[in-house]
Amino acid sequence: MSKFEQIMLLSGYSRATVSRVINNSPNVNKETREKILQIMKQLDYAPNRNAVALSIGRTNQIGIVIVSLIEITISFLNHFIEAALRYGFQTIIYTSQGDKAKEMQAFEDLRSKRVDGLLIVTCVNDPGKLSAYGRYGPIISWQRMRKGQIPSISMDQGEGYRLGLEHLLAKGFTRIANIFGRSGSLNTRSRRLAYESTMKQQGLPVRADWYRYEVYGMLDGEEAWRSLSAMQEVPEAILCSNDYVAAGILNEARRQNLDIPEQLAIIGFDDTELSASLGITTIHNPIKEQAWNAFYHLWNQIGGESLEQSKLSFQLVERQTT
């Protein structure tokens, strides 16, 4: 008698019910699941995952495509993995470090059915090329994509950026610098457009000489402020690409004995624990909810259910740096 048959005999449940427990189906009540799992443990039963994949038509694995791990992406990943685990999925992280060929391995794995779907956090290949792989399984992106390419759950960060800018203007700050991330990203473009259009509407000068790009972490933020503070005319406020950059700018400004926010107002982005700890005004970015929306998008196609995605918005969180 096979171990599978022994589980059926000892539990008193049918082959279909035991299979549902092995396959992590949500359609089993708690008491039944716990009883079968306990028997599986007693018998040291380990299901053949290849056989399970064939029987249910999926691997219960989702690939995550990312260029490199940084603080903000780690937060998003943790929430996405939490959602995936809740529905019985494991995740495989494909880190490319900017290598286009390495990144393509994830998409080839989708084509060969080694994963059921893909989440793009950041990518280096042309999204138009990557979108062709959508015929092999669902793909969702946290990186903003142009219309007609890969579906994206990303929010337009220009909207959040505008909240920060309007807050600074209402406080009387008009000499405003901008610290951006990737120079070519859609979010950087929309942030820059939000700044330029708002300043023009207010009849204020657009200071492109106070733009800094490719600024991601605390040390980058420190260096960015050293660069700006060495200029003949120095900004009195600064909008940052994220909270870690804002923390770096705050550190360097304090080394220079500047009064915050009287001599320099600082606004971060994302509303991380770091910004709360340091008292940095920031824009709340609902990262957790975006991660769950990303999983729901995949699950609605992989699992055949219809889970409604949350409608999200940015919010200003005012603290001591403004």
TrEMBL record:
Pfam families: LacI (PF00356), Peripla_BP_3 (PF13377). Gene3D superfamilies: 3.40.50.2300, lambda repressor-like DNA-binding domains (1.10.260.40). PANTHER family: CATABOLITE CONTROL PROTEIN B (PTHR30146:SF105), LACI-RELATED TRANSCRIPTIONAL REPRESSOR (PTHR30146). This is LacI family transcriptional regulator. InterPro entries: HTH_LacI (IPR000843), LacI/GalR-like_sensor (IPR046335), Lambda_DNA-bd_dom_sf (IPR010982), Peripla_BP_I (IPR028082). SMART domains: HTH_LACI (SM00354). Residues 10-56 form the HTH lacI-type domain. Keywords: DNA-binding, Transcription, Transcription regulation. PROSITE patterns: HTH_LACI_2.
